[in-house]
Amino acid sequence: MNFIDELAGRIDTAVFDQNLRNSDEVREKFIIDSVVNKDSLNALNHVDTPAGWINIGDDENERYVLGRLGKRHTLLCVGINPSTAGSQNVNDRSKIKLDPTTREIEAIVNDSDTPYDGWLIINIYPKRASKPKDLDIEENPILVRRNLLILEKLKKYLADQEYTVWAAWGNMIGLRKYLLTELKAIYELGFNGSWVKRGPLTKVGNPRHPLWAPDVPFTDFDIEDYLRLKELENI
């Protein structure tokens, strides 16, 4: 069962049936709004998500948000696309299965010298692929729409606390033309936390991926200047 169909099963059937005639876009927005309005962002979680975690998506095809929301200061990592992290850990049902990237993020947050008490990872494109070269050649507009709908909800939950946005997509953003377009759309949602990078930019001017960044403190990242320069490169 895909992500949206599973969410739809949590809505009152009579209310849902009234919206079946709407377009897919209107229907999906209705589903997400209805589920979130019942409770909180956690209401969008995968059914097997352990307590204390946010895990929005499914185990096979798509993932939108993963991590543990802090109470004071959350580190929000922006990657290219999700890999395998997010399914339940078969060895410890109270934990989420992490991959190398998310383990690196968690290690940074657990360092006593950082101000963060939680972390989340979102992605420019939410399609699961262990190798970015396997990403869709052309963007899937349904996945893009769902990603922006869910990230809009996330932004509202982050508004009541301090958060830092870690630009962490690396050179892989150049693999598909649509990735830069979708990064700009995410930025325009209004994530107003301070933006940072780890280590110097790559030779082609991108912020480094967590697994390829040196173990150094975060420094400021000018996301507006970055988007402007990248758009000029593509003219």
Described by the principal axes of the CA atoms, the overall outline is: globular
Strand content: 15-25%
Topology order in helix (H) and strand (E) letters: HHHEEEHEHEHEEH
Strand arrangement across the biggest beta sheet: 1-2-4-3-5-6-7
Separation of termini? 41 Å
Q: How would you sum up the major sheet?
A: 7 strands, mixed
| Poorly predicted runs | none
Gyration radius, in Å:
18 Å
Number of strands: 7
Overall mean pLDDT score?
86
Helix content: 25-40%
Number of domains: 2
Helical segment count: 7
Structural class: alpha/beta
List the helices and strands and how they pair.
Blueprint: H1 3-8, H2 13-17, H3 24-38, E1 54-57, E2 63-68, E3 73-79, H4 100-110, E4 118-123, H5 141-158, E5 162-167, H6 177-187, E6 194-198, E7 218-220, H7 223-233
Parallel strand pairs: 3-4, 3-5, 5-6
Antiparallel strand pairs: 1-2, 2-4, 6-7
Describe the structure.
The chain is α/β, with parallel strands linked by helices and 235 residues long. It has helices spanning 3-8, 13-17, 24-38, 100-110, 141-158, 177-187, 223-233, and strands at 54-57, 63-68, 73-79, 118-123, 162-167, 194-198, 218-220. Strand 3, helix 4 and strand 4 form a beta-alpha-beta unit. The protein is globular, with a radius of gyration of 18 Å. It starts with a helix and ends with a helix.
